Amino acid sequence: MKKFLSVFIVALVLAFVVKWILPWWGIALAGVLAGGLSNKRFLAFFAGFLSVFLYWYSLILWGPHQKVAELSGDLFTLPAGAMPLMSAVIGGLITGIFALVGSLIFHKKST
Amino acid sequence: MNVSRLFALFFWSVLGALLVYALNNSWSTANAPIPALGQILNPYSGLWANAEGAFENHDFTGAPVQEEVHIVYDDDLVPHIYADNLQDALFAQGYVEAQNRLFQMDVSTRDPDGRLSEILGEGLLKRDLSQRRLGLGYAADNAVKAWKKFPEELKLLEAYTAGINYYMDRLSPKDWPMEYKLLGVEPESWSIRKSALLLKAMSQTLCGYEEDVENSNALALFKDDFPLIYPERNSKDIPVIPKSYILPSEVDESNPVAYGPMSDIFRKRSPDGVGSNNWAIMPEKSATGNAVLCNDPHLGLSLPSVWFEVHIITPDFSARGVSLLGMPGIMIGFNQNIAWGETNVGHDVMDYHKIRWANEDKTSYYYDDQVLDVEYRIERIPVRGKEDVLDTVKYTVWGPLANEKEDLALRWIVHDQVDKPDFLTFIQGMTCSNYQEYLEATAVFYAPAQNFIYADNEGNIGLRINGNLPIKKREMGRFVRPGDKSEQAWQGFISREDNPQEYNPEQGYLASANQWSADTSYPYYYNGNFEGFRGRRINALLRQDKKFDLEDLQSFQNDVYHVMAADALPTMLKHVQGEDNFLLEQLRSWDYQMSPGSRAAMFFDVWFDQFHHLLWDEVYLHTEMELPEPDLWHTANILSSEADHPFIDIKGSSKKETLKDLVLESMNKTLDSLDGRQDLQYGNSRNVQIRHLLRIPAFSVDSLPLGGHKHTLNAQQSTFGPSWRMMVELSDQPNAFGTYPGGQSGNPASAYYSNRIETWASGSYDTLSLPSSGQEIDRVLYQIKFAPE
């Protein structure tokens, strides 16, 4: 649990920082570094995923984004409520995968 | 090293990288392109960043202005620009236009330049090629060359350009309009040439009309019968200028040369539905004793709207109205003293000439007793995701060889190198305070010629056609003409003094609605694209012996009385007296109103169309070539006069049909075609839509149940209609109203993207005031300040 939390928090902080330096896919780097804290592959994945998933999701939900959600939902013929989720899944998935990669880089063995 | 770990590392790294790559790029599929999902859906710079948050004030110090400029946005997102001088004011106008409509400005100048496929892909290549054949980019180059001869005046356009670019230079990708993000392309900075392109695009819409090829085909086909099908003028029409001319006639006769038939269909007709109304009444016709001016231009309706509302204040003037994005100044509007507006003049200024080649390679041609070489313009068209496409367009003394297959060169007014700074028209226009000044301001206007209407707070009204009108021999420009003789060229231009015009007429009003400019006593020949029904209606309304208040004038702008139906329907009904059916039941009690709830309005539309096609079966059976459509007014007149026209007989039938036979048969066809739709109302029978520029349904407004018709004053069609309605009563302080189908913001996520549609659709208006300072504006959304270093 402690490991999960540390990957989660580090991914969150790094995601927040890299957005000032790198384009949106900078979360991949956040994932690699945060995932490196865990030798548990799937723990790294889930903690990374959840971290940016929640980060992005709350960024969108807490902003004045209802109209954009409706418009982009219309664009993809999806309900408006699906759009923030879709964004968050993209962010989560990339962070999660790269957290797993980080774990693989920094830890020889999964325990 | 653990092999399985290495494998996993490889696997997940590659998968992650591929995912990032896939989401960071757009993909074209058979159905629709998939945008770069990661780019458009990330919360930092994706579409989410286009959400409209709280408005914030901006201060720019060190801006390229001479004095401080203050912009105050009111609660309709209309900017009020307070500047110390004209140049600074136009800098600010450029800034606010870019701020609200950047993508629209970009795409509307790419179209005339033949550069749409660069951002939209191969699907637009045909359009680009055809635009380049018409020489619109060449025309813009010529305009820029001409403008550079007026460096002092050009400073105004340069200030406007600087304003646009000042905004763009401060944008980061997250601020780009949604459309750029969806397309995955970058905005491009503004230039004077882009303003020229915009003026050329406007000309293409408004004076890009000709039927030379169609008419030549018809003349070759129908020979002596041609005038029976295609008479030039409806004698019932009331011209724009209500007076007779006594100037000596200077028209030379010249007989048309019949070319054709030419089967090559090489271009689309200019859109049917472009038109406008304007009128002004003098104090004796006005309930308040003040002159009133009204104007409603009918154009293709789109989102963002074609117009942008702006209020510009300097120590010399305070003017408000709409501007065409990309051109500085106010095109239709008013200031403290005067109001102005335009409608289109349909004179044909686009003529085709058949080139006689002097060699087989078609590189030199005969012109009088000379042999001339063509010049070449290489057109390089960048195509998104593909190699550039090259096209060579040949240029002759007439202009570009627009149709290579039929050897037709194009003489078009838009290609001319103007001799005056025509871009000044709408800048100077807003500064005027009397008619003399207004005549001078508009005298520089070149094309597309417009009926410029004027009214002031001293009770004067005026109207003059501004624009260069070519002097033509009779029937010149109606058909394809020889290209090997200089005598076939325009004989110069009518002097501005001789352009049709009137000031404070006896009848107490002036009105134009795209009808003929002057009656047959006008000494110059002109042909073109004119619409008479709206002109007849507004004249009938304004001739009434009464004084009009603003409510009356509002009802005129929203009027849906169909003059053509009133001409034609009584005869149609007379010929089917003994019959009884749901169609006739509705039509017998119809008041000729094309209102949304009317069933009769829809029935008439279908029935008349059926009759028209039966009457002109001889024309419509020719599908192998382009022919002009016989005019609807001609059909209506044949009905109402009950004349015995030789074309009433249906070709190929054994019987000799009469008018009654055609009316009856077209009624039966109508009943068949309406089967199952008999309860449908007019407003629901057609789909009035206001589409986004890229036809993105999510950014469009669909299915507005509205009345109107292209021949009624409220010229509402499915995708065309009144794009701005304005009424200005010129009292001490102008009493002005207006609205348009859209909103000030070009951002689909903004509350101001389509907020005015409801007011517009209901036929109401917003109040347009002239606050003399920011403090007078009740609800301020936000403010911008520019200060020099």
Structural descriptors:
heterodimer; A: 111 residues; B: 789 residues; alpha+beta; 11-stranded mixed beta sheet; 7-stranded antiparallel beta sheet; 23 helices; 31% helix; globular
Protein model, in words:
- The complex is a heterodimer of chains A (111) and B (789).
- Chain A has 111 residues and is mainly α.
- Helix content of chain A is 74%, strand content 0%.
- The radius of gyration of chain A is 15 Å and the shape is elongated.
- By secondary structure, chain B is an alpha+beta fold.
- Chain B contains 23 helices and 28 strands.
- In chain B, the strands form six sheets. Chain B has an eleven-stranded mixed sheet with strand order 1-28-2-3-7-8-9-10-17-18-20, with helices on one face.
- In chain B, strand 14 (375-381) and strand 15 form a beta hairpin.
- The longest helix of chain B is centred in the N-terminal third of the chain and has 28 residues, at 86-113.
Decide which structural class fits the backbone of chain A.
mainly alpha
Query: How much strand content do the residues of chain B show?
Result: 15-25%
Largest sheet of chain A: none
- The rough form of chain B would be described as globular
The Rg value of chain A, from CA coordinates, equals: 15 Å
Low-confidence stretches of chain A: none
User: Spans of chain B with pLDDT under 50 lasting ≥5 residues?
Assistant: none
The averaged pLDDT of chain A comes out at 94
Helix percentage of chain B: 25-40%
Report the sheet-strand fraction of chain A. Answer: under 5%
